[in-house]
Each structure stands twice: as C-alpha cells, then as structure tokens.
Amino acid sequence: MSTGRDSETTFEEDSQPNDEVVPYSDDETEDELEDQGPAVEPEQNRVNRETEEKRETFKKDCTWQVKANDRSFHEQPQFMNTKFFCIKESKYSSNAIKTYKYNAFTFLPMNLFEQFKRAANFYFLVLLILQAIPQITTLAWYTTLVPLLMVLGITAIKDLVDDVARHKMDKEINNRTCEVIKDGRFKTAKWKEVQVGDVIRLKKNDFIPADILLLSSSEPNSLCYVETAELDGETNLKFRMALESTHEHLQREHSLAAFDGFIECEEPNNRLDKFTGTLFWRNMSFPLDADKILLRGCVIRNTDFCHGLVIFAGADTKIMRNSGKTRFKRTKIDYLMNYMVYTIFVVLILLSAGLAIGHAYWEAQVGNYSWYLYDGEDATPSYRGFLNFWGYIIVLNTMVPISLYVSVEVIRLGQSYFINWDLQMYYPEKDTPAKARTTTLNEQLGQIHYIFSDKTGTLTQNIMTFKKCCINGQIYGDPRDVSLHSHSKIEQVDFSWNTYADGKLAFYDHYLIEQIQTGKESEVRQFFFLLAICHTVMVERIDGQLNYQAASPDEGALVSAARNFGFAFLARTQNTITISEMGTKRTYHVLAILDFNSDRKRMSIIVRTPEGNIRLYCKGADTVIYERLHPMNPTKQETQDALDIFANETLRTLCLCYKEIEEKEFAEWNKKFVAASVAPTNRDEALDKVYEEIEKDLILLGATAIEDKLQDGVPETISKLAKADIKIWVLTGDKKETAENIGFACELLTEETTICYGEDISSLLHTRMENQRNRGGVYAKLIPPVHEPFFTPGENRALIITGSWLNEILLEKKTKRSKILKLKFPRTEEERRMRSQSKRRLEIKKEQQQKNFVDLACECSAVICCRVTPKQKAMVVDLVKRYKKAVTLAIGDGANDVNMIKTAHIGVGISGQEGMQAVMSSDYSFAQFRYLQRLLLVHGRWSYIRMCKFLRYFFYKNFAFTLVHFWYSFFNGYSAQTAYEDWFITLYNVLYSSLPVLLMGLLDQDVSDKLSLRFPGLYVVGQRDLLFNYKRFFVSLLHGVLTSMVLFFIPLGAYLQTVGQDGEAPSDYQSFAVTIASALIITVNFQIGLDTSYWTFVNAFSIFGSIALYFGIMFDFHSAGIHVLFPSAFQFTGTASNALRQPYIWLTIILTVAVCLLPVVAIRFLSMTIWPSESDKIQKHRKRLKAEEQWKRRPSMFRRGASSRRSAYAFSHQRGYADLISSGRSIRRKRSPLDAIIADGTAEYRRTVES
Amino acid sequence: MAMNYNAKDEVDGGPPGAPGGAAKNRRPDNTAFKQQRLPAWQPILTAGTVLPTFFIIGLIFIPIGIGIFVTSNNIREIEIDYTGTEPSSPCNKCLFPNATPCFCTINFTLEQSFEGNVFMYYGLSNFYQNHRRYVKSRDDSQLNGDASALLNPSKECEPYRRNEDKPIAPCGAIANSMFNDTLELFLISNESQSTPIPLQRKGIAWWTDKNVKFRNPPGGKDLEERFKGTTKPVNWVKPVYMLDSDPNNSGFINEDFIVWMRTAALPTFRKLYRLIERRNDLHPTLPAGQYYLNITYNYPVHSFDGRKRMILSTISWMGGKNPFLGIAYITIGSISFLLGVVLLVINHKYRNSSNTADITI
User: Which structural domain, as residue segments, surrounds residue A375?
Assistant: First the structure.
C-alpha cells in the first residue's frame, strides 16, 4: 500500500490538488468523518460534552484487560456476557476458530430454516399447506411435496458438503501447534488451547496463532521481522520491536513464566494498523502501539524465535474481524429472473381469479342444476368460486417453476467447475489453476462492460529488471552488431568472471562488460559503484549467498545489477558499507543517509572513502536532479536524449550523480544536520531543508533504465477485450508518470491518443455544470436529460486523473466540509432550515457533478486513475455502477484492491502471489491477467448463452405444461380438474423434462472457444442483454401458451366423438390425459433438441432417455401390480396399455408434436436466412474458419514514434529503511551489547527523540 | 500466446512446472469432458436439411390424412336422440317426474346395412363427468375388493358414503349417478312382425378394468353375502350384486358399471352400451331397413339441459367415425408442403447475400 506517511496531508483551501500524494488516509472511515460534524446542538451542551468525552476517552477506549500468565483472571464474572437468558459466556474468545455453520444436531433445523427463508421455497411450503385443506385441495399432496423435497435435498447436500469442508479446514488450523508457558515451562500446545494472557514462543517461519504483544526475541533490541502478506498483500518484510524493558528482562524461560504484566487496551476491532494500550508492570506503565503487536496470520521471518503475550485470540483477532461480512452478490439475470417470477405470479393470480369467476358463473348456470354433482353442501356459487380460486392457485402453481432455482444453482455450479478445470487458465509455473470462488455469478461474466484493473502485480509482474543505462552520454544495453547476429541467437553476457553474480540478470551488451573490465572510462566503474553504495537495501547471507531485502523492487534491481557488474554490496553496519569492487573489498564510512521521500524524489548518501575523501552520491528523478546539477556538465544533453529514448521504450529511469565535498564544508553542514535531526517540531521539513543545502552542484554520471515487466500477454488481452467493447480502467496507487508509462506499455494509450488530465476535465465539468445550472438550476433533474458529448466523437481520448483531482472533482472534500460545519452552530429555526437546504443543494450538486464525471470518463477509450486510495478505487467502481448501470469487474492482487473487488459486480483476484487478501475476497481467481480474456470471452459468454437459453426454455416448458389445465377448464366447468395424472405432474419437472435442459445449460456452445476468442465481437450480445430480457421472456411465454393450445385442442378435436379400434370408447378422461402428456413430453424434449446447438452423446442420451423414462415410468404406474398394492394412489391402471394400443391416439400424438415443432423450425430457419446473427454466420462458416485456423497472430506493434513523452522515474513509493539503518537496530552483528549501539553519536540522538 | 495455445501440445510436452511430481499437483485433468471438448454434432438449420423435412412431412401427412378420411367416411354410423325435449318426440312424456317407470319407442330406418361387428353406444351431452368434485368421488380401494374399504369407504365419497348408518357400496357420486336407461333394438321385418336384435352385454369394458381394477369383495360364494353390511347407492333401485343375473357380470365387475365408472374427458361423451356381433353367414349384421328402439326411460337429464342419444356404429382399424383427424392431417400436410415452397423461394432470394456476407466482427 502506498498510503504511508503522506497520508496526514490535508487539503489547504484553494490549493491545487497535489498529484503526488494519496489524498487521505483510509484509516478514517466514512462514519468517522461524518461524525465530526454534529448536526444541531446548543453551544453550551457541546462544550460540556466535549470536555467530558475527553476525560472519558481513555477509560472508555481501554476496557480490554489482559493479565499475563493468569488464566483465572479472565474467567472473572465481570468479563462474562449474558448470551441467552442465563447462559454466560466469557467476552474473551478462545483461540479456536469456527467458520462452519452447522453441527450434527443443528444441521437439519437450521438448514431448513435457511432454505425456507428463500421466497420460492416458502411459496411452495405455503402451497403444501393449502393442499392440506380438504375444501380446496385440487392436487394430491405428493405433487408438491416430492419436488420440494428433492429441491430441499439437493440444496441441503450442497450445504452439507460445503460445511464439512469448513469443518475440516477449522480442524486443521485449530490443531496447529505452538509453544505456550504452562506451569512455568514451555510446552507444545494446540492453537485452539491458546488463551488470552498466555505467553507463547514462536520460531522462524511460524504462523502467528493470535494477536500477540511482542515481549522479546532472539534479535538485538528484540526486533522481529514479520511477513504480512496474508493481511495486506505486501511482500516486503516489516519489523516489529518490543519494549525496552521487556526486551531486557524477559529473555529467559523462567522470567517469562513469572511475567505478570497487566495490559489495558482497546476492544477488538478490525483496524490492522492501529492499536492503543498500556502495559502496567513493575509499578510502571508503558504505552503500547501497533509496532509492538504481531497479528495473527503473519509469518515470523529472519528471527530465530520470539516471545509474545496473547492479547486477542480467535474471533477477536484483527484478521478475523476483517474477514466475514462478504457482500452477497447477485447477477443481473438473478434480478431479472425474480421480476419474471413475480410477473408469472401475477399472471397466476389473474388466471386463477378469472377461472374462479368462471366457476362461480358456471355453478350458477349449470352446476346448481346438475343433480349428479350434489355434494351435500349448500355452498353458494360465489363461495365455490372463492374455494376454486385457491384450487386453481394450486393447480397452476407449476407456472412458477419449482425446480428453477435449484436448476440454476446446479448449472452455475457446473460452470464453475468447468472454470476450475480449464487447463488454459492453469498456470503451470506456480501450479495455480483458476478458481471460481463464488458459484453464483457465472453468467454475469458474459455481460461485463467495464473492467477496473489494478496495476502492480496485475498488469505488471512487479519484477524490475535492469535493462539499459546511459553512462557519460553513451547508451549501453542494446545488443551490438545486430547486423552480424541477426539470424543467430543474441548471446547473453557471461557473468561468470564475477563470483558474486547471481546469474539472474539477462544483459546483451558485451561492450559494457569490456568497458568495466578494462576500466578505460572511470565513469563506468563509478556508475556501478554508486548503485552499490547509494541505497537503503539490507543484506543477509543465506548459505553464503547474498540476499538483498529492498524497500522497493526498483532499488533491489539496481543493487543487484551493480552486484552482477562487479560491484557487490556485501555488508552494512550502522555507519559503514562494505563493497566488493571488482573483487577487492573496501569499506566505506557512511556519514549520512539522505533518505527518499515523495517530495524529494531522490536519495543521497555521504560517505568517507578509505582514502579519506568525502563524497556525496545521489540518485533520483531526472526532473529534480537536473535542477541541482553543476552548470558545467558536458553530458547533460546526451543523457537527456537517452532519457527520452528510455522513456519511449516505457522504461523507468533514474539519474545518477555525485560530488566531492570538502572536509570543512561537510563539518559545517553536519552541524546543521545534527541540529535538524533532533529538532523538536517539524523535523522532517527541517531535515529536507538541510538536505537541500548539500545536494547541489552535482556532477551527472548517467541514467539507469529499469523495465517494469508486464505480465505475459497483457497488451493482446487488452486489445481483445477492447474489441469486445469492454472498457478498461486502470486504478493504481502508483505515481502518475509510472501509470502513464504502463498505459503506453500495455497499449491502452497510443501515440494518437489525446490525453486529458485532471485540470482539463475539471474545467470541462465546470462549464457543463454552469450550463446545466443556467438551464434548470436545482430542478435540472426535472428536465429530461439531454445527452451531449463532452468531446467531439471519433477522437481517441484517454483520461489520466489522480486521486486528489478525483476528490476535487467529485466534491469529496470531507475534511474541509466538516470544518465549516463545526465552526458555528445554527441558533434559530431559520438558520437550521437554511443549513439543511444548502446541504441538500450541495448533495444535488454533488450528484450532478458525479454523473457528469462518469459520463465524461465513459466517453474516453481509456481511463487511468493514479495515486488513488483503496477507498477511492471502490468509489470509482461504485460511481460507474451507480450512474452507468453497467456490469463491472474489478481485478487486482493486493490488499489495496479488496475494497474495489468487493464493490464491483465481479471481483477477480490474481492468485499465486504471496498475498491472499485479494483472492480471499474475490469471486474468481487465477494466476495471470491474460486469463481474463478466456474467463470473459469464453466462459463468460458461454455461461451467459447457456443460462439465457436455459431460462427461456424453462419458462416455455412450464407454460406449455401448465396452461393445458387452463384450456381444459373451459370443458370441465372451471372445476380445477387437472388435465394430467397427479404422478405426471409430480414428476414432470424433476424427471421427465429436467435432464436435457440441465445438460444444455452445462454443455452447450454455439461456437467453439477458439472462435469465441477470435471474434471478440460475439461478446456484445451479453452486454446488451440480447438473449434474455422482457421481450424474450414474453416470446417464450407466448411460445408456451401456443404450444399448450396445440397440445390441448388437437387431442380435443380427436376425442370429440371417437371410439377405439375395439369399439370401446377411449374418450375417457384417463386416456385423454395420457395422450396429452405423451404429446407434451415428446414435444418439449424435441424442442430442447432444437435448442441444443452442441449435441454430445450425453445430450442425445438424455433427450431420448427422458422420453423413454416417461414411458417406462408411466407403464409401471399404470400396471396391475402397483394398483393391487396401492389402489387409491395409482388410479390410472391399464390406461397406458389400452390407450397407446390405439393407432388413432398415436396419430393424434404425432400430429400434435408436428404442429408444435414445425412452425418453430420454419421461424428459426427464416430468421437465420434473413437476419442471421454474427454467431449464426460463424456457425455456418465453421468449417471454412477451421480450415484457416493456422492464421498468424498479429505481432504486437509498439508504436514508438518520435515523441516528447517524458519519462517516469523509478523509485520506491515508501521511504526506505534509512531510519532503521541509522538507528542501528536492524543490523546484524554478533549479538552486540546494547551499549555499543547506544554509544554512537548521531544515530543515538535520533533514536531517543523518536522513541 | 493464449491464442495459439493448444492444450494437446502442453500435455505431450509433459508438465513443465512440476519436474519432481512429488509435490501435490493442482493441474486440472486434460479430459475431453473437463476441457469442454466432448465430440459433438453441431446441427444448423440449413436449407439442405430444413426444406426436405418440410416436403417429406407434407408428402407423408397428406396420404395419411386421405387414408384416415376415407376410412372414416366408410364407417356406418347412426345417432338417435331420445331425450324427448321436442313435444313431437315419443319420449316427451317421460320428462315429467311422476311418469316412472316410463317406456317409449323410437322408430328409425337404416338406409345402408351395417356389416361386421356393430357397436351400440349411449351418448350424453352437457354432462360434466369430468367435474373435479365428481371425478374424485369414488373409492378405488373399495372397487378393488378391499374388505375394509367396503365397510368403511373413503371420505372422498361424501355425501354418498353412508346411508342409514350403512356404508354404501359402491360409494360416491359417480356410482350413484350411474346411467340406468335400458335400450332394446328391434328389426321390423314386415308390417307386424319384429325380431329383437341380440345385444351382448359382456366384452364392453377394458380387460384391465374388468380383471384388475374392479373386483368383488372376497368372501362366500354368494355375491349377496360378500356385500353384506352394505347398502345400495341412494339413486339405485337394486343393490350392486343384483346388477346382472350372471355372477361373472355382477357386483363391482358388472361391465355396464365399469364403463360408467371410467369417467369421460369431455362433457359430451359416448359410452359403449352393447355389442352386436357379426353373424357367421353372409348376411349383414344389421341389414338396411326399419328398426325401433325400446327405451326404459329412467335417467333424468332435462334439469341440466342434457341430451341422451343412442348410437349405432361400425368400426375400422382406427376406430369409429371421426373426420377431424383426417382433415387435420391433410391440412397440416398441405401447409407443410406450401411452407417448404415458400422457404425455398426465400432461401433462394437470400442465399447469395448470405454466402458472400462476411463476418463483420
């Protein structure tokens, strides 16, 4: 994260937004900021309250009490919270974590409860209850119960499997071990046994089991290095340091066992970087802050062992507090589907009401006079109609498809598995397959409009490599003699002469090596010497190999490069640096480190050579270095040209320079420096001023060029996605220059692009606001919005905007606003009204401004937001979501992307990196950015098409099935008599018609994956909701209605006066039911056959299998045997065999099926011939396209014209380790006594002041 | 890179990332199913497949339709309405409730002789045998001979479940409203003499109904004893065991009863009443000539505007007379053929453009 120390900066009024800083700290949550402006309050009360609050702050905040080595302390009654009535529970959680939801006893009731919370399931439960009422039951009880049980059962099994996995995971974690003091000795204990107040010992590479206070460690000063990748995704090591007194007194086991410190601190919360508390020990109190706390989830590194006191355990730990509360995401189709189900529900009620009225009328006209219908109850026709209303609700309930939701779940689950299984999204180098972590969003992947991408680690690999350099005006790095070696492979430089080379650097310029080895040009050696000495890298020897630990990858790359070129940085103490210069070791005395920060954009080091000369070495951004150069620099122009060349190749550059300092001059400066470093106030500013004084009249050595390596296939992927009409926004915490550079590197920006910056669009938006105000003022909303473009269309535009400008434009200046509000409080009613009015006006203005901004940004082909905080990333995503109503996808790898990933409709995490935070909160994860194109263009598109086809068919088949009852009503006195056997109704949705459509939903593909990728334009159907919308829905319903009419009226015609071939009259109800049911089953199964465009043997098997299954089950249910066993449950005995013996009935069935399907075939054929879709065309020419499969991929073209694009500079975004180095704490010596460190002059001063 | 990627290459090349293979490999399996590469047939609706389909369907359906139509037209059928609502009708007198039992006679003439087996039906219209309340008002267990259900019929039978504290056998509204007119057919050979036509009362129900679904309750030899403890349905004159003198056609397995219990699909229906078997000699079963129908008019339909009919019909391989299916087949066949022609024209018109049309994306 790049927040760091810049975060304290607040806005000055009327100042221009600062492009360099990240706007405000994320620590301040939205609520806090709001809270600062109390709404209405009399002055006096407020003053009183505030003073009171101040007094109570400490008490109120620090209510969490921990006593070391005293478990009974935490079991005292005042720490018990009442949970249910009388069951008490300690407020201190145990360290066992519990992520599972059910246990063996609670599974059934809790799972059922959860399932019935879903509207659909509840609806069917209500139906079931209705069916139990004898007056209105029209269907046998099992018609609803059996499908409902199946649906509940499938869901329950899925939940059970998930929960078992969670159980396993919990168990695995809870049974990890660490060492805990018990009875005065360290004993191995399981994590779940650890409790608050325990003193534990951790070893190198251990995971930390709970949030603990660091007491001591094996390192000097009880430093402890931790890797926080699991928490925040940052892979560089962080150090934590124990209190001095615990460091001194708590090294031994017995002293640790006797430790009886008492801690008062804040209650558990989710802020990772904040902690306040006090340690009371030996009648002294010590303040505690986050630097002394080791958080659960981190890993101990580079520290042999450390001791700590458990403060928060289990659910109270910060990592656990941070997890959870994942927002439940639903897809667009989900919402649409719900509305459609509501629509159907309304249709159901209307139909039932209509039929009920019909029944009442019929009863009055006919029923009352039909003596044979006498039922012994003197009910009025209208009451009968009322009962029949409910009866029809039950009969027609299958219009709302009971298995719809569960089928949708099954399909999505299957599609998720296909994503997990995809070999082409598997990254072999890290053994990482793609993973669909959410199984409910797949079809949304086919509808993405906007992609929000992080830069570092997502577009780039976050690997910096030393590519080129310019020394004394001469550029090195390009392979020489290209003409000679054009067809042979260009040889890499051989570094074997150098014992310190790590063999990882690939360099092609042999001439540079020659130059170094001969030493002809002293500047060349000086250049690499500078790289080896001017940095804040830490070094460690592992198995005799040098291992560098850098605050930024840029710096690491430079120091490693120097090492390979013969200038190896070997060791560092607090005031010396040892370097091997072409094999000879020399130790330099460090006089001062002038550390990097984002204002200075440079760092310098002042050293005394063994010969006694004092020299300043400096590296920094060209803009700042050039200002400070000595006017007599001969290579200034050449270096400038080289920098331009590097910048055009999207390389990150730094300028290197040095100067000699006279002894006297240094002594003078050093005085000021020491004075500034102990300055009580504004120390940073004072120091910067002092630094400025010495960093002048520099002599330019040259420039380095580092490549920020893009991930594989990024430009290709981006251009593919752009062709699919997906807009890509890059959101990064990086600097503007870097971000712009990457924009060019991944071809998001090209030379033709006109780039707009914050100030440009600010003025544009301002004019627009003025116009809008003139037109409608506050009531602009009432006027229909006219869409007028901000830019002339056709131009290729890009927007680059920094976080500060974003805040400025979007009127998000919170600090400022709350300040104004705080100033005075409204006294009168009048004032209050005015205040609220102005507030409202401000809100409207803000909304208008935000809308304008989104409109403007969406007109640009690319948008890059740099210097944005995680919260702003989320805000930008939210803006687009809100004002564009578009489907968004956020992709990122680090903890700073979590917000954005959670906000977007779909979050994608890059896995395989060390940090897991982004992945944990993402919906999909894979290892490489380039897999995004496959995820969207192939899986997303397929999933969308499959889901749409599935839904359309599903609604169709249920309408075709159910509405036959409706038509039949007109011939049975609207008496809610069903047109089918009860068993058929029961099994229709679960057995006879479910499998083929499920398989189509899983397997269908209109065009192959290769063609999907080759024609990204196919993706557009999903973005425009073309395949499933209200129109399509109603067409499906209409199709269903027509099919049901055919299904009913053709058999009706046939049955009007028929007799069977034996003379028996087969016009009985049961034969009629069988005829319609058979025709229905054949029709819907053939229909799905028509809809299936990818016939595998499974599809064929399922379609014919379903028909066969129908006949099989029907003949079984109509057999003599089953009737003898259950005479009243199976009443259709003999119907199938008697009815289907008649050729007449078969002829009827064939005719019905033909009339249902032939028009569909004709219409499909016509639309394919007259208005073929792109996908149709590609399908038609599939063979031809396959033949030309061997097409060549267009070589990626970097358009590097002559341009004046100025470069980025490479540096860390954080301050380096300079403070740490000069404080002497981290330097590994042979366990030197503390006094030795304290003895040092300058450093010691600074340390005391700091601590 | 992703474009030219071929899953097969990678597999043949061996897993690049895991040389040891000892570590847990999370590489997905390279199976056709998991990689969604199952061999498949991808049918497209092309002119080559669609047009022949329409023509073939047209060519098949039209002859079938003509065949059915001709067959249907060759069937002899006569329908005689004896409801008696018209004042001129001989049965008009029976409409008044006091006239029971009521006999009436209707004369009719067969213009052509009926050959082969002739079937005699009774037809009712505006009679909602498919009404939900009516359809469920029966107890299949009782009808299946279940002893306990015999004495304790299902609740569905209400209000025809018990009468005077005795269970009704057979219970329910369907049984209670059983058709009870008696129809007799006579051929008038000359002025004064008439010969009755022999009507078979057995063989009119489905075999499964007669032998599986309907069974008399178990017990003694005597049918009456088997139905002991039950009472007749309210509207019936005789108890169920006296429906026929033949013990194999009495009780629940009486075929008239079985036929009635098989409820009709539509409010206008016909049910098989009697069989007139073909005689061995060359004479037609029912020669052309004068006939009269003797009706014992019991069944009231006037109250709900119902009609009663007697139908005599011969049958063919596809059943009785019904012109609908033949006409429907001819129509659909012709439409299909026409559609084929229309599609052919349209396809011809658009073929050129669709062939040259390049994919625009």
Answer: 327-400
